[in-house]
Amino acid sequence: MSIELYRDEHHACLMFTDLVEEDGQAVQANQFLIVDHGVGAVIDPGGNLAFNELYLGMSRFFAPQQLSYLLASHADPDIIASLDRWLTSTRAKLVISRLWARFAPHFAKVGKTEDRVVGVPDAGGILPLGQGVLHLLPAHFMHAEGNFHFYDPASRILFTGDLGASMTSGAEAARPVRALRDHIPRMEGFHRRYMVCNKILRLWVHMARKLDIAMLVPQHGAPIVGARAVADFLDWIETLECGVDLFDQRAYQLPTAQIDPAVNAVRAPLRAVQGG
After folding, report:
1. Which candidate, 124, 177, 129, 101, places its Cα nearest to that of 32?
2. 196 FRET partner, CA 20 to 30 A, in 59, 63, 169, 188?
3. 50 CB burial (10 A radius; 0-12, 13-18, 19+)
4. Distance (Å, rounded) from C-alpha 21 to C-alpha 50?
5. Which residues pair with 105 in a beta bridge?
6. What CA–CA distance (Å, rounded) separates 185 from 244?
7. How far is CA 276 from the centre of its chain?
8. 170: left (phi over 0), alpha (psi -120 to 50) or beta
9. Which of these ranges, 84-93, 98-107, 194-203, 267-276, has the smallest mean pLDDT?
């Protein structure tokens, strides 16, 4: 399913929400296409499970062979495991944190990434796209050590990777969230486990409040739309205890329980974290 997040005469942002089969084996993930004056970029292109459907789906709007950039918020498999196939089928360059620039080649055949990886410094930067720009915003430890969010000033959309992720699927993942309160239970378990600590969230919120954000769109689950919902999200995560805030010595004990491969077979990895 493709969803038009924004469109004007020269600029468009599309979201693809259901490219991975709903079989409980892999997490739902969103992929994004931004086109400005005929120049295109894909944000968080996804793993091999999503490649074929994304390539075909975006072909209806923009020729994949003409892509200029693959932007990766971080280096998780659901973000760039399909890198080898994108480097083969397009001329696009990978834009990723310098911390991950030398790990990215592990997703591709030897030589495929030569001169095709743009390493972003920790401070981020502004990337030209067509006649516009994308802002590469520091989002380190949310949850990866080198992590970036992408702000599109033309559409006022902030693409936030795993921040704002919610445990939704199917049509629910495409339905905009305009009132945050009832949506928090779908986000809370994930954020408490995957975000590293409250200090990082507070630093990020201080930066994000300087932006004019019409829509906050995560890589998993539904977009958060409208000034009120975005402001409520910032207020919520600013005070959220998470990650190492919640750990103590009890989390680090020598194990005594035997793992039963049948009992511990993973069916729905992201849903499981809601239980802690």
Report:
1. 129
2. 169
3. buried
4. 9
5. none
6. 20
7. 22
8. left
9. 267-276
